[in-house]
Amino acid sequence: TLFANAQRLGIKIIAPVLCDIHDFKGPRCHRVLFDAPCSGWGVVGKNSDLRWSKSKKDSLNLAETQGRLLRHAATLVNPGGVLVYSTCTIIRDENDQVVEEFLLERRDFTIDSAAKTFPKELVNERGFVKTYPDFENLDGGFCVRLKKRLLRLAQVESVYVPGFYDAETRKPVIDGVPEKIIARHTLKLQPEYYPSRPIVPLTEITHDRVTVEIMRGCPQRCRFCQASRIYRPVRLRSIDDIKKQVMANLKATGHDEVGLLSLSTSDYPDIDRLTSTLVMALEPKKIALSLPSLRPG
Ligand code: SF4
Questions:
Q1: Does residue 262 line the site of ligand 1, with CB under 6 A?
Q2: How far is the centre of ligand 1, averaged over its atoms, from the C-alpha of 156 (Å)?
Q3: 239-253 and 271-282 are packed helices; what angle lies between their axes, rounded to 10 degrees?
Q4: Is 35 helix (H, G, I), strand (E, B) or coil?
Q5: Is 225 in the pocket of ligand 1 (CB under 6 A)?
Q6: Among this protein's residues, is 88 annotated catalytic?
Q7: Per-residue pLDDT tens for 235-285?
Q8: Going by CA atoms, what residue is nearest to atom 8 of ligand 1?
Q9: Which of 19, 29, 88, 218 is catalytic?
Q10: Is 221 in the pocket of ligand 1 (CB under 6 A)?
Q11: Can you give the residue ranges of every domain in the chain?
């Protein structure tokens, strides 16, 4: 038994509780190992009577029990925690099938592949560990490490985790996540949000220039335009902030062109003064000024 083995090995941190898993009242845990009751076909070499005492139907019945118990074991795992499912059988119905069905239902769990820790001969393409006697004379067995993640993140206001929502109805498919995602906006475009030393690629790129945001959102609200709705409200940067960033970025990068970035640059209310201020600063250095996203008319 677990208790006898722990005593034999001198392990004192195990406190066995004998009960039906459904009646277990302990706290949720960061690590849960669910060693499922199984047909035992992985150790048939040691239990040869299995050939006569077990049938295919037993595996199918067990798969139903394993799935139910695995779902319950999952309720004992903390957000961010780990659930390991293991068996000593090689029957896919009791292993892969149980886990795949569980993952379809519990989208907050993902497979944490065993490829990082087990020899590659034992890990399949899904990240499951499968052992067979033809490798190092091991018993047949199965285990998979499942991580419960993203749930805590999805509970932060304004964070949207697509896997937790039905794509058609947009309703949550798991408990504990908000019905509606509230959009969050930066109300002021502070200078510290922008890099003073942007990365310069080693290759020549299409927009090979210093790019400086001057406005977020667009006041025009054309009916076909998603961006103007997504990036509401309109927020402007001051000419002084823009000029300081332009000069700092040019000094740090050596670019010879500056692009002013926004959804619709010509809708920046003080565009005349902005461009003339920048032209006066850039012209003596022979640096070009580019205004993409201009709205005609
Ligand atoms: S001007 Fe451009 S960015 Fe602004 S709403 Fe119209 S299409 Fe969208």
A1: no
A2: 31
A3: 30
A4: strand
A5: yes
A6: yes
A7: 999 999 999 999 999 999 999 999 999 999 999 999 999 999 999 999 999
A8: 225
A9: 88
A10: yes
A11: 2-149, 191-290
Tokens standing for residue 265: 């640059």
The rounded Å distance from CA 229 to ligand 1 centre is 9
More confident residue, 144 or 137: 144
Report residue 142: phi and psi, to 5°. Answer: -150, 140
Atom of ligand 1 at shortest range from CA of 267: 1
Residue range 2-149 in CATH 3.40.50.150: yes
Distance CA 59, CA 91 (A): 8
Cα–ligand 1 centroid distance for 222 (angstroms): 5
Segment 186-238, tens digit of pLDDT: 999 999 999 999 999 898 888 899 999 999 999 998 999 999 888 989 999 99
Average pLDDT of the chain is 91
Amino acid at 156: V
Pocket test for ligand 1, best of 213, 214, 220 (most atoms within 8 A of CB): 220
Give 297's pLDDT tier (boundaries 50, 70, 90).
Answer: low
Would the pLDDT of 71 be above 90? yes
- With a CB cutoff of 8 Å and minimum separation 6, the contacts of 287 are 250, 255, 256, 257, 258
How far is it, in rounded angstroms, from Cα 216 to Cα 262?
6
Residue with tokens 């519990």: 106
**Contact indicator for 165, 173 with CB cutoff of 8 Å:** yes
Question: In the structure, what pLDDT confidence band is assigned to residue 152 with cuts at 50, 70 and 90?
Answer: confident
Q: Locate tokens 């937790």: which residue?
A: 164
Nearest in space to 281 (alpha carbons), one of 237, 246, 235? 246
Topology of the domain covering 191-290: Transcription Regulator spoIIAA (3.30.750)
Contact 89, 41 (CB under 8 A): yes
